[in-house]
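Researcher: Batch entry, complex prediction.
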Amino acid sequence: MSAPPPDNPFDDLFSLLRPDRLLRHPLATGEGISVCILDSGIERAAVESKFQRLGQTILPIEGGVFTAERVEPLPYEGHQSTPHGTTVADILLTLAPRIRLYSADVFGPRGTCQVEVLIRALRWATNVWQCKVINLSLGVPEPRLQPMQRRHQLLRAVEEAYYKDVLLVAAADNEHPLTRSYPAAFAPSLLSVDKGRFDDPLAFAYRLNESVEFQARGVGYMGPFASEPATSWAAPHLAGIVARLLSLRPNMKLFEIKAMLYWIYQSLERSGTP
Amino acid sequence: MPTDSASVETILIVDDEEAVRRTFGEWLESADLGCDVVVAKDAESALKHANHHTIDLAILDWNLGAGNDGLHLLEDLTLFHPDVSAIMITGFAHQATPLQAMRMGVRDYLDKNQDLDRTTFLKVVGRQLERIRPARRARRLHRELMAFRSAVEKVLPLVQSAAALHEPLPLPAAVGNLIRFLTRTTGATDGVLLVRDYDAQRHPSEMCRAYDGTGRRLDAPLVPFARSLAGSVVSMQKPSVMVDLDRVADAGNLELQPFEHGRASLLAAPMNVAPGVQVVLELFDKQSAGGSSTFREEDRLLVAAAADFAEDLLRQALAERQMHRVLFDAIEAALGASASMAESLEGAAPRPDEPPPAVVLQRLRQGLDEDAVKAEMTLRLAESIRVLALRHGSPAVQHCIGLVENLRQLLDEMTGETRS
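Model: Structure tokens for the complex:
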């Protein structure tokens, strides 16, 4: 009777490389990853109570309210300027419940977002909060980036984030037939996301298009208009997926994340599971 | 009446002696006081000049000859120039009728026989000019402000009527038309337009208004923008659809407006009108042939296009209203500023009933009894009569004189005193 063949020492390693193993790994929770949501603030109590009901404990949400008048943000007191940001936060925490979440309220009580405030918040999230991932479920239409200098300032802020190893996930508001939406249109130095029809929150697709690379699930779970397909909800889905992957290997670069997302998508497509 | 619009003060010298006129004129010219100097040999030529030109300071001979005296001339000059000041040249100061002199505006005396030389003359004139100049500037400014107010008050009604004419469409009417059009084309049951205006400097900072499909403003209390569907759709930056509104409101971060409760479906569109002003159109409860249904993609696209159009309409209406508001505010501010300045100038300018200068009182004392007590009483009486005359005119003084004479007669009869 012959002896059983020795275990292949790489089997375990290769088995980890299956997309499902990576995305649904027990340790892929977002643990150790700081994520900033540049949006309309987060109603902290509403989010906390929802996850409490689900038996999950989330880390305390911190943040600030950014205004045109001040260099430093006003203190975040746990409230939203509009419900939009809370829906985004809920999606991110649904996918990656152990992330450390920062709320950068760039709308504030005025209810409108100025490009300069957006840039200020972007830099604050990068340099002060030192977030690894920044979610932007908002877009600035091209006409509002006039004069050209303003567009350059936004581009520079996005590039600064890239060179500081920060991953920007931006909603590609690509519905308008003529104008482009920024910063998603700065696609090479960030992750631009369109909405897709996926049932699984962890599903996504690589769809290289004009200024768009990825698609993710376009519906949310909490708050007004959450069931309306929107790129606003697709961005935090991809940001959540990225946070999960980063919690397995926190030092991955943007191009590594893009390559991994591409590989996962290709693998799943080949196996017929997307 | 002539005005003192000239940029420099005018000094009028009136003396019947040619040598005196020439000397005074030369002293003034050589001192380079920055004034115009006019000379007149008698009252008639002085008054002719005063009829057409401003006179700020009159240097008058007490005795002009031909039966005229300086005090009468001054009385006539004040008819042309109520604020004119005078320096009286006299050798008989102690004989002067001081009360009248004070009333007429005599501010100083120069005694031909005692202290009249170039130095004392220029000193007295300089002192009067120092007093006259600020008051004159204040009067001129006051007049200009009054002219400004008058002009603005004439313009204001014209501006207001022009604003009314140029207003392209009353806002509620435009809103009503828009809502009716979209309600009909999308099949919505009804619609509401929410306007939110935020100004950090105002209290309360947030003001929300809602208009229904007829353009009528809804009176119901509205929930804060931060917790509203309208706030959410503004952040969505595009027209969005929702169903079963009451169920979504359970999320804990949303409150429905009174007119949103019980709605089966909603199509909401944001309009970017101006910084700090958010406008959201909400259409409710789509109905189709089969009954209740939800808004479709074509409805959303139609509303998106209409919202772009409405955005321009509202932006234009708002800009015009803001322009008019700014204009009205500017005019009101200018009127307010001119009123307060005129008030303060009136307070600063010398008033006709202010006490006579100390130098005049001193002269009066010299001409009165040496007894200090009597002199003080006489001065008090003189001052009382002066104020009476200023406030109530000559009839009051005549009445006062009558009373005093009656009292004197009564006392004379009682005491047997017959001395006049």
